[in-house]
Amino acid sequence: MKDQHKTRITVDIYGQQYSIVGTESSSHIRLVASIVDDKMREISAKNPTLDTSKLAVLTAVNIVHEYIKLKDEYERLLRKMNKEKDDDSDD
What we know:
There is one protein chain. By secondary structure, this protein is an alpha+beta fold. It has one domain. Helix content is 66%, strand content 15%. The chain has helices at 26-46, 52-90, and strands at residues 7-13, 16-22. It has a two-stranded antiparallel sheet. The model has no long low-confidence stretch (mean pLDDT 93). Keywords: Cell cycle, Cell division, Coiled coil, Cytoplasm, Septation. This is Cell division protein ZapA. It is found in: Cytoplasm. Homodimer. Interacts with FtsZ. It holds the Pfam family ZapA.
């Protein structure tokens, strides 16, 4: 198995610098960091007394919740497509 090229990039999330290493492009890593930063700022605006660690946990919970909803919708659409495909082949 070939080693994939690793990208190292420094990003800013909620005022802190993080060095992130991954196999994705720099633009992808920046996008992910930007989404996390935006979500942290959104939650912080609604809950200004949260400390950073609680804010980070709530951010993770919110993002995973959104991920699960999208995954469920994706799987529902796949089932619907497969059913329609099966229905078409029955004709």
